[in-house]
């Protein structure tokens, strides 16, 4: 019996999850490895932090989907891949053999600048950490006015700041002093119009933006910048961007400049053709891609086709990223910011559109449970 093994149940594997029953029906052995039974949709994470969504509204029961399809769900994590023996070694010490392997192992926020074991520092991934952050903010802000420092200058930092503001405002707690340590600048990679809209909203909410300073050391009590300046805080949130998990480096596999699995236009590792990958854990060699969920979603049908085609000796299908994509930020308080190409608008309509798209996406895959 030919063995298909999938690492991770994230965005790039959703169509594979939806077709597991077909694979099992064709006589293949299908196994999915994931550290927990749920996969959280990161696009709705800030909304969960702000209280717009409950945790159960932004997650899929991956374990249930896999078992319902007649496949095998292994609750563990992939610690190492041996491509020569075609084995995936698990954190438990067990191993699984494969004929074709597909990796959607995800990414992590670097914590190099954080003291080990500091429970006052929260990362934006895994999404479960935002739930813990929410509880901590409510607890502390109910007693006194606190200061929350957000490290990062990208969309995630803006969304986290806006949804912390929403959370405290709707819970009737004492509004904290929110500071964004934005490095080069808040949304510096975006156009002037987008940047100005977001900065203006942050200022209206009295959220302070510090630009031109980078964090060197972060703790739950304060941040030290590269220039040696100290910034006191009660809680710190790292929204500094993500990098691929260390699985491939730990396995001695080839890695791209960001540590991700290098894949060709077929989402296939050229050095080991029976290994495929998608989402944040890969380095797409034809053209490096930003770590955005839209690309993982677009990779879905290609990964589904190619893992089966590789198993069956059929022609592989190339992945074409596309040049344009839709971006909508959830800035808290029912306010969004829409951008696609030259079209940009903000306000409640933008948020309602994001909410509709996200809920529809969730409904489609939750129906598999």
Can you characterise this structure?
- α5 packs across α6 (155-171).
- The chain is 30% helix and 26% strand.
- It contains 10 helices and 25 strands.
- With 369 residues, it is α/β, with parallel strands linked by helices.
- The relative contact order is 0.16.
- The chain has a 5-stranded parallel β-sheet with strand order 5-2-1-9-21.
In short:
The chain is α/β, with parallel strands linked by helices.
What is this structure's SSE topology?
Elements: E1 3-7, H1 14-18, H2 20-25, E2 29-34, E3 38-40, H3 45-50, E4 59-61, H4 62-68, E5 72-75, E6 78-82, E7 87-90, E8 95-97, E9 100-103, E10 107-108, E11 121-123, H5 128-141, E12 147-151, H6 155-171, E13 177-181, H7 192-204, E14 208-210, E15 215-218, E16 222-225, E17 230-232, E18 235-238, E19 243-244, H8 247-250, E20 261-263, E21 275-277, E22 282-284, H9 293-312, E23 327-330, E24 336-340, E25 343-347, H10 348-366
Helix pairs in contact: 5-6
Label this structure with key terms.
alpha/beta, FAD/NAD(P)-binding domain, 3 domains, 10 helices, globular
Alpha carbon gap, first and last residue: 26 Å
CATH architecture descriptor name of the largest domain: 3-Layer(bba) Sandwich
Strand elements, count:
25
Name the CATH class of the largest domain: Alpha Beta
CATH fold group of the largest domain: FAD/NAD(P)-binding domain
Question: DSSP strand (E) fraction?
Answer: 25-35%
**Arrangement of strands in the largest sheet:** 5-2-1-9-21
- Pick out the low-confidence regions: none
The average pLDDT is 95
**CATH homology group of the largest domain:** FAD/NAD(P)-binding domain
Q: What is the helix tally?
A: 10
Secondary-structure-based class equals alpha/beta
Q: Please, how many domains? A: 3
